[in-house]
Amino acid sequence: MCGRYTLRKSKAELAEHFGVDVPEVVRYNIAPSQWLPAITSDAVKLLKWGFLPCWSKEPKVSFSNINARRETVATSNAYRGSFRKKRCLVPSDGFYEWAPGTPKRPHHFRLKSGDSSLIPT
Questions:
Q1: pLDDT tens profile 72-117
Q2: Domain segments of the chain: what residues?
């Protein structure tokens, strides 16, 4: 599961690609709990990376999740309601996974062509 990702596109490139005005957020190491652009059904917003279940009374780090499993996201008590009704698109052009070994090394995944397009054509 991805724990870091990249967004190397400029504001102009994002606007052209998605047809909406997206804030400038060119970064090479976006991590959980950081603010990032997300495209929702009604607007483009800066959202904090993490997920708080509806039953959480306050934003505590101990309840914040950064990933959901594809196999259980539709049935899990924590994610089910948001999965059905609250979706967004998070622009990205690459992500990091950690290669095993000591010390662990990050490996950056992106399109094989080297193109930093957001969506393969």
A1: 889 988 888 888 888 888 888 899 988 888 888 888 888 877 665 5
A2: 4-109
* C-alpha to C-alpha distance for 87 and 89, rounded to whole angstroms: 7
With CA atoms as reference, report the closest residue to 42 among 85, 8, 83, 93.
85
Q: Would you tell me which CATH number, out of the four given (3.30.70.120, 3.30.70.260, 1.10.1200.10, 3.90.1680.10), belongs to the domain 4-109?
A: 3.90.1680.10
CA 107 from centre of chain: 17
Marked catalytic residue, from 2, 16, 24, 54:
2
88 is catalytic: no
CB 96 within 8 A of CB 107: yes
d(C-alpha 20, C-alpha 43), whole Å: 9
